[in-house]
Amino acid sequence: MFYWVVKAILKPVLRVVFRPWTEGVDNVPRTGPAIIASNHLSFSDHFFGPLPLPRRVTFLAKAEYFTGTGLKGLVSKAFFRGVGQIPVDRSGGKASERALRTGLRVLREGKLLGIYPEGTRTPDGRLYRGKTGVARLALEGRAPVIPCAMVGTFELQPPGRIWPRLHIRPGVRFGKPLDFSRYYGLETDRLVLRAVTDEIVYALMKLSGQEYVDIYAQQAKADLQAARKNAKAGVDAPGQPSGADEPAPKTPVGSVAAGNGSAATGPGGPESLAAADSQAGDSAGWDE
């Protein structure tokens, strides 16, 4: 009930203030289980993504939204519980498996399940490698996947910004359902899971127009934080003379240690399949 009350209040306000646009709503089935797989540009995605849909979307949300302290923590906990979001422990292992089972329960109930395949918000507006949790849900849950591209929300509310920019008009674009029934029964095949995940991310890339980078967003964030820490400490980047006027060059976001991945025009190429699940933490694609 609280979900529909919140939506009834927010929908007209968001429409008047931000004038969001929508494409492809008819691609979302009116009944039955389905997975809404979205890119993740901003905290605002939680609002503008489900806004145009007549059905309720249950998102797997990071557990930190439910464990905060103080007034902010209480408000966050009340809001996310009220709109039916499910807390997910992202520590991996058994926690990831529990998240998977929770998502499958939502699908078995015939509901719409929302998930961010990248596993976290993009640090720079680009699209990053998907985690295979979305593929496992699609195959084990026997559900179609609806690619959902958020557009403009990164500019609307980039990382670290509390209040969104009023002059940015955000949008959401729903693609045609992706049917993976040809892979049913192969839920434990790592190459199949990677192929399905890459197909979903490729659809997101085509819908959103984002540049694709074949590494995980978590790694990109870690690289960015390390670069900022080094810059603050005055550490020179390799090959740069000490005291140079130019700032130290950033580590290329499209590169991975030992050559395991590179910036690419799209996911799903031989490099992606060869890397399959060699990187730790590729068992799920839960919200950041």
Q: What features would you describe in this structure?
A:
There is one protein chain. The protein has helices at 2-18, 45-48, 70-82, 94-108, 133-140, 153-156, 190-208, 217-233, 270-275, and strands at residues 21-23, 34-38, 57-62, 86-88, 112-115, 127-128, 145-151, 171-174, 212-213, 263-264. It is an alpha/beta fold. It has a single domain (2-211), classed as Glycerol-3-phosphate (1)-acyltransferase (3-Layer(aba) Sandwich), CATH 3.40.1130. The strands form two sheets. A seven-stranded mixed sheet has the order 1-8-7-2-5-3-4, with helices on one face. Strands 6-9-10 form a three-stranded mixed sheet, covered by helices on one side. Strand 3, helix 3 and strand 4 (86-88) form a beta-alpha-beta unit. Helix 5 (133-140) crosses helix 7. The longest helix has 19 residues, at 190-208. It is globular. Residues 239-265 and 269-284 have low confidence and may be disordered.
CATH class, named Alpha Beta
What is the string of helix and strand elements?
HEEHEHEHEEHEHEHEHEH
Number of helices: 9
Characterize the biggest β-sheet. Answer: 7 strands, mixed
Q: State the distance separating the first and last CA atoms.
A: 26 Å
Strand content: 5-15%
Q: In angstroms, what is the radius of gyration?
A: 19 Å
What is the count of structural domains?
1
CATH architecture: 3-Layer(aba) Sandwich
Mean pLDDT: 80
User: How helical, in percent, are the residues?
Assistant: 25-40%
Q: In CATH terms, what is the fold-level topology?
A: Glycerol-3-phosphate (1)-acyltransferase
Tell me the structural class.
alpha/beta
Shape: globular
Strand order in the sheet with the most strands = 1-8-7-2-5-3-4
User: What would you give as the CATH superfamily?
Assistant: Glycerol-3-phosphate (1)-acyltransferase
Poorly predicted parts: 239-265, 269-284
Count of DSSP E strands?
Answer: 10
What oligomeric assembly is this protein in? single chain
